[in-house]
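TICKET: design request
STATUS: open
ATTACHED STRUCTURE:
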C-alpha cells in the first residue's frame, strides 16, 4: 500500500519547500537552459488569488506547486514539481491546485512548459489539458508549449 499524500497550504518562501524549488530550478536549468527561478518575484502572500500548496508523505516534502492570476477568471499554474516520478504525486498535486483554483474563483487554468519536455506535455494532456496558443511572455517563443483547462463546477 502506498503511503498517504497530505496536501498542505504553503508559501514559496517556506523553508520546507526550498529544496524542492531549488531542485526544480536546477533540473530546468540543466535540461533547458532556463531555470524559471523568478516565478515568485511578484508573489502576493495575502492575496487569495495567489495559491501555493505543498505535498507531504510521511513527514517528507515531496511536491509543490502554485497558481497565480493572469486575470480575474484565469490562473496560471507555476513551479509544479514532484520529487519522485511515477508515484502519483503530480496528479494529486495538480488536482489539488485545480480545486483550490476553483475555490478562488478561477474558471480556467493555463500553464507553460517546454515543448521539448515531452513527459510534462503528455502528463498535462492526460490530466485533461489541451494545447492552446502561446500567451503572455510565451508569444512568439516556439520553445514554449502552452496548455489550458476549463475548470468544472
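STATUS: resolved
RESOLUTION: sequence designed for all positions
ATTACHED SEQUENCE:
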Amino acid at each position: 500500500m502506498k503511503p498517504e499524500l497530505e496536501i498542505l497550504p504553503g508559501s514559496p518562501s517556506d523553508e520546507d519547500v526550498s529544496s524542492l524549488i531549488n531542485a526544480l530550478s536546477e533540473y530546468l536549468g540543466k535540461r533547458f537552459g532556463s531555470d524559471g527561478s523568478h516565478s515568485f518575484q511578484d508573489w502576493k502572500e495575502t492575496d487569495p488569488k495567489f495559491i501555493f500548496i505543498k505535498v507531504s508523505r510521511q513527514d517528507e516534502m515531496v511536491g509543490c506547486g502554485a497558481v497565480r492570476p493572469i486575470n480575474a477568471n484565469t490562473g496560471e499554474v507555476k513551479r509544479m514539481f514532484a520529487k519522485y516520478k511515477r508515484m502519483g504525486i503530480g496528479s494529486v498535486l495538480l488536482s489539488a491546485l485545480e480545486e483550490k483554483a476553483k475555490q478562488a474563483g478561477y474558471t480556467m487554468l493555463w500553464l507553460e512548459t517546454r515543448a521539448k519536455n515531452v513527459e510534462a506535455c503528455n502528463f498535462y494532456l492526460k490530466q485533461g489539458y489541451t494545447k492552446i496558443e502561446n500567451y503572455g511572455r510565451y508569444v512568439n517563443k516556439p520553445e514554449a508549449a502552452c496548455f489550458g483547462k476549463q475548470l468544472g463546477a
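CLOSING REMARK: The mean pLDDT is 86. The longest helix spans residues 18-32.
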